[in-house]
Each structure stands twice: as C-alpha cells, then as structure tokens.
Design a protein that fits this description.
Layout (H helix, E strand, L loop, with lengths): L10 H15 L12 H6 L4 E5 L7 E4 L1 H6 L4 H4 L13 H14 L1 E10 L5 E13 L5 E8 L1 E4 L1
Antiparallel strand pairs: 1-2, 1-5, 3-4, 4-5, 4-6
Length: 153
Amino acid sequence: MQQRTGSGAGERHASIILDSYRRLLGKPLIATDADKPAAEQLFEAPITVLSHGTEQDPVLNYGNRSALGLWEMDWSAFTSMASRHTAEPMIQAERRRFLDAVAEKGYIDDYSGVRIAASGNKFRIEQAVVWNLYDEDGAYYGQAAAFARYTRL
C-alpha cells in the first residue's frame, strides 16, 4: 500500500488534517515529532484517519495505513471511491444528515456507525471524531474522520 500516490497524500494535506483538528477541538489529533514529516506520522498513526474532498459527491482523498487495512483497499482504490460508499446504501440518508451537521457545527466527537469494506465485511466504528478541514487561508477543504475503536461484525 503506497502512502504518497495521488491527491491528498502529501505533507500539505497531512498538515491541513492535523491543523484543522487542533483548531476545532483544541488538542492534537496525534502526538507528533517535529523531526519527522507529518504525512509519515499521520499515515503510520495508531488510529484510523481518512478524509474526503469538496466535490458534490465527495471522493476520499486520504486514508492512513489503518484505514486502508480496515476498508481492505490499496491507496488507488481507496482514493477513487466516493465517500458515501464507505457506508451501506440503506443508511445513506442518516449519513448525509450527519455530514450536514458536521458542516454546520465544525465537528462531532461521538459518532458511531456501521461501515462496509471492499470485501463486504462490515464493522462498527465507535466514538469517531468527524471534523471540517480548512486550508491555511481558511478555505473549506473537505471533512476528515478519525477513530481508534471499531468492532468487526
């Protein structure tokens, strides 16, 4: 699984994820070492982190090693998938309402829901944080999610 191929995989994208989280929640997403690239640290983080862009039907543009493993995809497949395909079709309306609430409030820090991997395997994410991403100029950049807990179903 490659880390730095495709949109969003670089240092700037990792910084936007980390900086947006810090600004909105007032604490760091992960402990970082200033001597190592942020992109490398985020990719190898012990939590699952993913993000999507600002398209009308947002496409995933980042998944760390944990996300790629959980969704059972390589970088290329993961970052070409519409983020709505991470959830089952029958709960799409619930997911849309949730993402709209995040867009309005800036973040939600207690989300739980069932997700589906490429193989069809299901898992429940627990206590996920979902937050808006803003670039260094304050322009809306998409949304990200992070969680440490999940249960395979």
